[in-house]
Hints:
The protein is of the alpha/beta class. The chain is 35% helix and 16% strand.
Amino acid sequence: MGMNNFAKLPVLTKNVADVSTVDKNYKFEGKISIVLFPGKEAELIKGEIFNLNQKIYKPFYGFKDFQMIVVCPEDSKTQIDKIQKAIGNYTDMIRWNFVFAKDEVVKALYDSFNTVESLDVNLHTSKAFIVDKELNLRGRTDDKDMADGKLFGYNMGSVGELNDKMKDDVKVVLAEYRLALKKNSADRKK
C-alpha cells in the first residue's frame, strides 16, 4: 500500500484570537476560515473582495467546514451592505460572514495574527488570511517573493497571487483535514 505524502501548510502563528470574542454568532474553531479586514473605506477595495470571491470563495464554498469571515469596523456597515448585495447578485453567499466591531476590537483581532504588517489608518489590509480549525494562522515559510520567506496573507489585489498561491494553499489545508478524517475513520474500523 502506498502512502500519500505531501507537505503541510506551515503554521505561522498559533492560537490567534477566535472571532467569537468579537461576535458570538461566529467562530474560527472547527472551520477553515478565510479572514479579511476591509476597513472603513470598503467601497474603495471592492475589487479586492470581488477577486477573492471569484478565485477563492467560488471554488471552495461547497465544503461545509469552509467559511469567509469579513471583520469590519462598525461605521462601515452601509458600504459593506452595498458590497454584499453586489456580490450576492451572482454568488451564493451562504459561507460569507460579516462581523462588525468597534475599531479597537478589529485591531486587537488582527494583532493576534502576529503578522509583519499592521492595518492601515482605515483598519484595512489588502491581505486575506487562512485560519485553520485549531486557530492557527497558516501560510508559507519559503515564499520566494518575500524577503524573509514568510507569507502571512495573500494579496487580494493580485489575481495571480490568489490563483497561484492562495488557491493551492487552501487546497492543501482542506486535504490535510480530509486525510486526517480518513485516517481516524480507518483507525476506528480496526
